[in-house]
Amino acid sequence: MSSVTVRAQVRLKIDELFVQWMNEESTLESLSKLAISIQSSQPLDKPIKTAGEPSTGRDALNISRKNSPPPRGPSPSSPLVSPRSSPKLQRIPLSTPSTPSTPSIELNLEQGKSLVERTAWHQPHKAATISQGPGLNQQHTAINNGSQSSSIPQFHFPNGRPAADNSVKVKLADIRAIFESDGSSQGLEKHQFARLCSVCMVPVYWKGILFRAAGGSGTRTHVKFSSFSQVWKRLTKQYHDSAARFIRLSTRFQRDHLVYHDLFPLVQCIVDDHPGLGFLRESSDFISCYISTVVSRIFYTVNRSWSGRITAAELRRSTLLSAIDNLERMASVNEELSFFSYEHYYVIYCKFSEMNNHARKLDVNDLSEYDEYGLTPAILRRVLSKAVLRYSKKDEMLYSDFVCFMLAEEDKTTATSIEYWFRCLDLDGDGVISMFEMEYFYNEQLDRMQRAGMEPFSFNDCLCQLLDMVKPRKPGCITLHDLKACGNAKIFFNSLFNFTKFVAHEQRDLFSKDGAGDQETVSDWVRFAKLEYACMIAGESDDAKQYDMDEYDGDEEDPQLMALASGNDEE
């Protein structure tokens, strides 16, 4: 048997004997008298005797010293105390030296009260023996009262902090008045819920989810007051902030998180009622694409956990609810740049249509056309390998995933886009981008440089620049934290897999200040979408002019018409 095992068994035996000794009647009585003396501040001139002790404290001390083992250093678990700051110790023998099973213990008098309480906890049936004096009873009463008064208040509210007002009953009276004044015998219709939203102090575009949560649907076009009042009472009683209420209404109280299709009714309500989308309501074929674009952008931005489920905590940290509220005061949805802009949808949809082969999905050959074949095949294979796809099968990309891809490619400065491309570069999924993985992706950049007739930029030189930019905490390994903290993630990613943007960065004018004034206020995505939308509109105008000229192109050309089409007046 090893020495370590022997020491462990001896320690366990000593603990067992100590607990046995602490539960003896004589020990409990001694500790009780000691606690009373401490509370009454009586001097302890003589130690308190227990059964079988020597007659004097000096004899007990001599015997204790005689039988005690040599001193040793403090155990690793006990803190080191300075001799100058250590409390005064009173040596009190608590066991007889004639009994080998009861070791001698030295106690700090300031710990007497806690020892009595611990002993009472081990032996509840002997608590009456401990609490014999009137002073000790008062002490226990004070401790119990103090524990009740110093209870820790609740600080975590997963469903929002409860309000301390009586606004629920007041709002129910106002809600009843709206049902009686505006509703029929069958109740209110969906379009009549706008007034209810103002009374309930929620954005007007919540009326769709309020209507559905109260039982409304495509077949049930009316909701009665009794149904709505039950929903409102449950909502205000259990859920106390906008995030928790929005999730419960959108899911009809079925889940505590949002999934992809839960947001369709909200966006549909915005399409139906916002004055800036009247032209879209006339083109029903594109409504579903606009809704998919908005919902995909919401999940790309808000769902920071990449779980496909938006929780209340994620919703509180995002700007989605404030964006929905602000839409009511915007004449055009293009003023809202985070989720609902129609111009942004137009750019994304046109880019997808340019590469789409009418199968409503893209493969690696279709996706390679993006950005004038700027992305390397290696990164495209990683994108289509389920490393970042949320809604598509492997080796194909549906429109919803293309929205996320385009947002991540055109703005590599956001936290979500950095996570997006980090997942693609981390081939083995170990949480770091190694030099081997960087070299694997950069080799295709070298091949493109050679085919383009450029002077090759070796990987070793590129690696030195990348490490200088990122400054990883661990040499040779780049983590997600390193990329988010360095501020140069966009340059890092473009250097590894986007040849077009890598060359543009290397050949940039270092002294140019174009666009420097709005770098901090406008994101890369907003700047890109604005430029692309202007180019697309200009291109369509040129095509329209060319089409008008072709309409009048024949054997006999009218000079006046040709002059009007070209913008010249020859009168």
Write the layout of secondary structure elements.
Layout lengths: L2 H20 L2 H15 L17 H11 L44 H11 L4 H4 L3 H16 L17 H16 L10 H7 L7 H7 L11 H14 L3 H9 L6 E2 L5 H10 L4 H4 L5 H16 L7 E2 H6 L2 H8 L14 H14 L5 E2 L1 H4 L9 H11 L9 E2 H12 L4 H11 L6 E3 H17 L7 H12 L6 E3 H7 L2 H9 L1 H8 L17 H28 L7 H8 L5
Antiparallel strand pairs: 1-2, 3-4, 5-6
Percentage of residues in DSSP E strands: under 5%
Secondary-structure-based class equals mainly alpha
Helix amount, in percent?
A: 55-70%
Spatial arrangement of strands, main beta sheet: 1-2
TL;DR of this structure?
It contains 28 helices and six strands.
What does it look like?
The structure is a single chain. By secondary structure, this protein is an all-alpha fold. It is built from 28 helices and six strands. The strands form three sheets. The protein has a two-stranded antiparallel sheet with strand order 1-2. Strands 3-4 form a two-stranded antiparallel sheet. Strands 5-6 form a two-stranded antiparallel ribbon. Helix 12 packs across helix 14 and helix 14 (287-302) packs across helix 17. The longest helix has 28 residues, at 524-551. The protein is flat and about 110 Å long. Mean pLDDT is 78; it is low at 48-143 and 554-571.
Write out key terms for the chains shown.
single chain; 571 residues; mainly alpha; two-stranded antiparallel sheet; 28 helices; 6 strands; 55% helix
